[in-house]
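ugh ok fine here u go
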Amino acid sequence: MAYKNNKTANRRRYKSRYHSPHNYKTKKPAHQYRAAIIVGVSTFVVLACLVVVFAFGDRIFNFLDQNIAPASPLEIIPATMEVETINPDDVPTLPPTEPPTEPPTEAPTKAPDQSKEFTSLLKKANTDISSLGSQAIIVESSGTAATVYTYEKDQNGVYQQKFSPISGYIGEEGVSSSIGPYDSATPIGTYHIEYAFGNNADPGTALTYYPVDSVMRWVTDPNSVNYNLLVDDNAYSEDWGESQWLYEYTVSYPYAVVFDYNRHPVKPELGCAKFLHVSAKPTAGGVGIDEDSLREILLWLEPDSGTITIF
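structure:
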């Protein structure tokens, strides 16, 4: 088909190209609306169920309760059965319940009042009464002189003076809390009384008493395994270089009381041979009093009861 001019030909080609049915958008396929249909149907069903529940809910629940609910487990008593009745007078009556009572609180035990003199001595010694035995020897020093007090605790816990104060002596170097093996000072502190020995016969003390024989020694060599011990050189090897041969100490040791200074355990850097013994002058480190007073103290002392406090 011929066209009159190119302009007309171009217009017809444009119309045929762009007005063709194949160049317009086609309709969407049916499966693209499936999700919307499902959502719409589900919404309708839910709304319909709610309407039914609100409209007929009571009737539905009554029907289910009458036809589906289980039977009551409680036993039903027939009307024809006789039920036993209980006479209120036959029921035992319980005594009225009393409120629980708390046990009486005991008043704290008051410490017994001690004498002013005894309390003053403890204060000077800077010690507590609980550290004392029931038989207490207290040594108050002044220079190389000393005053020895004796107290005994009675059944009420009060310390009563036993003997009159005794004049005596302490070490040539006074008292000290730090004493070496060769120092002549008397140790400060409170110590338990252990046993006694002497060149005189046993006066009748309740303490363990060792009469001195010709072979007994007190070892003063800090390098010895027997340092600060009473030994019988027939029973022990002579591994000491220095010792007190007690048989020769007739003036100092007619009686002697051993207390537990540097005893359990024995330390070689500390002093040794510190006793309560007989002396009329300053000692090498013990506490010295007259022989008659020491004998009286030995007759008074009981095992595991005595202490000696030195300050």
